[in-house]
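dumping the sequnces here before i forget
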Amino acid sequence: MRLNKYIAQAGVCSRRKADELTLAGKVKINGAVMKTPGYDVQEGDVVVVDGKPVDAPEKAAYYALNKPAGYITTTSDEKDRPTVLSLLTDVTARVYPVGRLDGPTRGLLLLTNDGDLSYHIAHPSQKVWKTYIAVVAGHVTKDEVWALRNGVDIGDKKKTAPAQVTVLKEKGDQTTLEIRIHEGRNRQVRRMCKAVGHTVLDLQRTAVGDIALGRLREGTYRRLTPAEVEYLKNC
Ligand code: URA
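..and the predicted 3d for all of it:
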């Protein structure tokens, strides 16, 4: 198997990134620097990337998880909070989350050991739309909806990219919004709502592209179908 594919399928990074690391002299095969991304990895070769040994790639595995609030998407935590990986009770593949959902956020999280697919979905240049349902405090005015749609200043160098925003419900002093974004900035939806004066009380991701959370119960997961994997590779 080509070196870049080997590294990507082992879940280290995308094929493109593997090429960069290889050309930069960060990859060793059996102790010697290997700068040829097209090198054909042989059985028994010891591959080391950035000083870390890479386990031989396993069969590609793809899952959708309905993440409950309180679980974190990094693979370990200094505060000892439970990680989403602890919910995958019968998954033996070394999968990891595609992108992030912050601790209090619930909903659809994809997991895979396929570095290329992960990069493809999570990278903002790919413009994969992610759909969120946000319950926010207070009444959201038409002007505020327009501001969210056009892009708001959330304290980064650039305004947020245009978003699709719909008011779904207003009840008492709370408003439920559907917000679709294709960027993946840190805590983006919460910061967008804050930028127009509203605190998010509950946040759930309901879809990544056309892959919907559907009726998957909170805390449970399922394998993606071959058609869903194919869709994600091409979306
Ligand atoms: N936006 C947020 O604020 N949090 C998430 O987890 C995802 C998007």
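The pocket of uracil is lined by residues 101-102, 105, 187-190, 203 (CB under 6 Å).
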